[in-house]
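Supplementary Methods, section 5.1.

A reviewer requested that the exact input to the structure prediction be made available. We therefore reproduce it here, unchanged from the version used in the analyses.
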Amino acid sequence: MLKKMFYIAGGLFLSVALLGSMGLGAWTYSLNNQLEKSQADYAALQSRYDKLNSEYSESKTDYESRLNKAQAEADDAHAQIKNLESSLDRSESENKALKNKISAIQSKIAVLNAFWFTSESAFAHRVESSDDEQLKGLYQALQKDNTWDHFADLMSYLIQSISETSGIQSSSVVEAVRMGHHG
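The structure derived from this sequence is encoded token-by-token as follows.
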């Protein structure tokens, strides 16, 4: 009977061992399938990660390129603004110089106009209210000694200063005034 029990115990042990090894085999098979699935999922995720990383790198490069281009355009625009501001300042300076020339010409023409078309007192007032000291000196010389030479000097100075201020050659006009007395 001991033998029988030994066979029964051995059979049970073998049955348990067989069932255990079948369970372990099924469990191993299941784990292997899960591992393969996990590896496939990991490979898919790695592929997506690589794709996203590549897109990120491209986007970053594109962003940096656009940023550099925008910065270059901003620098160009800033340089153009500086250039335009410089041109504007130069133009304003030239405009002011032209206004000063026009004002100087107008005041001397007003003196000539007063001499030729108004009274002697209006002429004297225009000369005295002028900012031109040389004109005032020539007028005072004419008042002291009323000669043709002083008159020619005064008129020559007026015409020459108007001509020089306006950029016109006046030598022939001035010579005509000087020669007028002798001619």
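The helical segments are 2-117, 120-128, 133-144, 148-166, 171-180. These observations are discussed further in the main text.
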